[in-house]
Write a structure and sequence with these properties.
The chain is an alpha/beta fold. The chain has eleven helices and 16 strands. The chain has a ten-stranded mixed β-sheet with strand order 9-7-5-2-10-1-11-14-15-16, sandwiched between helices. The protein has a two-stranded antiparallel sheet with strand order 3-4. Strands 6-8 form a two-stranded parallel ribbon. Bound molecules: inosinic acid and magnesium ion (MG).
Length: 336
């Protein structure tokens, strides 16, 4: 039995979705469950020719034997959830906790209509901030109040804790990234909730003593969408010289690109209680590493990068993503 949390170590969009999908295929968890804010998250999973951008269903959906859950702390937009259930064909194994907070059209209007949120903070406009505000005010509706969700309701924490009691594995999928945590990030340029591993456990009603592993995902060239400080940011021209151009999964906004930030990686690893780290985009450090699946075949430049990152993070780097496809990965976990 292993209970693993996966979280983002920088500003989100580190490639958690792909790491989750790989671990799910490899470790065969009974449940893959989401923590995090809500449908402001966008995870892209690429399998062969097909690319899926998901905002509510856990990106581990590619592993067909797992129950797919949304934890109590997460906000649910019923329209987004039902649409994804439909296009991904996961009806029968996708569930939301009955106490999840609900995002309504009015929350989206308030998010997009607010100069503070939409213009200053640069929110995703998905209604999460206003819905979390209403939840704190105890006026938000819950999943159990929505007839369309009736057949998808579960006591998610109960399901997870019983699975762990039965000796099964559970994967808790975090969203967003450390730098946009409401508590630890670059306030006020942050999202509407904490984004660290403890929050992901709390979102799913899993006590801290039940967590075995926290995998923090870092991106070789971190990115940030929306406003706020970004100390290693480069100009769009410099990014282009590195061949990097990215757009958000949810908002399609151009992502700001930066260089590796060892200090932030260390601090974020500390607060997340990182036991293992994943590094994505190593093929951008050295294009020759594209698609590589063996550590020994990485170039010296790439290996040196990983070693230095490992020292800064203070935990072993056990997963290295070398390209967008789910198969483009080096998995060193067994060597631990
Ligand atoms: P909100 O979460 O939509 O209120 O947006 C607040 C800030 O967090 C904005 O800068 C967003 O771009 C950023 N943000 C929220 N969710 C994500 C995510 O999943 N990835 C990256 N940035 C995000
Ligand atoms: Mg994303």
């Amino acid at each position: 039995m292993v209970c693993t949390i996966i979280v983002g170590g920088f500003f989100g969009d580190e490639g958690k979705g792909k790491i989750v999908a790989h671990i799910a295929e490899r470790d065969r968890p009974a449940i893959i469950t989401r923590g995090g804010v809500g449908p402001n998250a966008g995870h892209t999973v690429t399998i062969g020719e097909k690319s899926y951008g998901v905002r509510m269903i856990p990106s581990g959906f590619v592993y067909k034997d797992a129950l797919l859950c949304i934890g109590t702390g997460v906000l649910v937009d019923p329209r987004v959830f039902l649409h994804e259930v439909d296009i991904l064909g996961v009806k029968g194994r996708a569930f939301v906790d009955e106490r999840c907070g609900i995002i309504e059209e009015s929350h989206i209007e308030r998010d997009r209509g607010s100069d503070h949120l939409a213009k200053k903070v640069g929110s995703t406009g998905t209604g999460c901030g206003p819905a979390n505000a209403d939840r704190a005010m105890r006026v938000a509706r819950q999943a159990k109040d929505i007839p369309e969700l009736a057949e998808y309701l579960k006591d998610v924490p109960l399901e997870i804790n019983e699975s762990l009691d039965d000796g099964e594995s559970v994967l808790i999928e975090g969203t967003q990234g450390f730098g946009i945590s409401l508590y630890f990030g670059t306030y006020p340029y942050v999202t509407s909730k904490d984004t660290s591993a403890s929050q992901m456990a709390a979102d799913n009603g899993v006590g801290p003593t039940r967590i075995d592993d926290v995998i923090v995902v870092f991106k070789a060239y971190p990115t940030r969408v929306g406003a706020g400080p970004f100390s290693t940011e480069m100009t769009p021209e410099e990014a282009q010289e590195h061949g990097i151009e990215e757009f958000g999964t949810v908002t399609h906004r151009r992502r700001r690109i930066g260089g590796w930030d060892g200090e932030m990686a260390r601090y974020s690893a500390m607060i997340n209680g990182c036991t293992q780290a994943a590094i994505t985009g190593i093929d951008r450090i050295d294009a020759g590493c594209y698609g590589c699946t063996e550590f020994g075949k990485l170039s010296k430049t790439a290996k040196d990068f990983v070693k230095q990152a490992e020292e800064e993070i203070g935990a072993p780097v056990t997963l290295i993503s070398t390209g967008p496809d789910i198969s483009h990965i080096i998995d060193l976990r067994e060597e631990l």
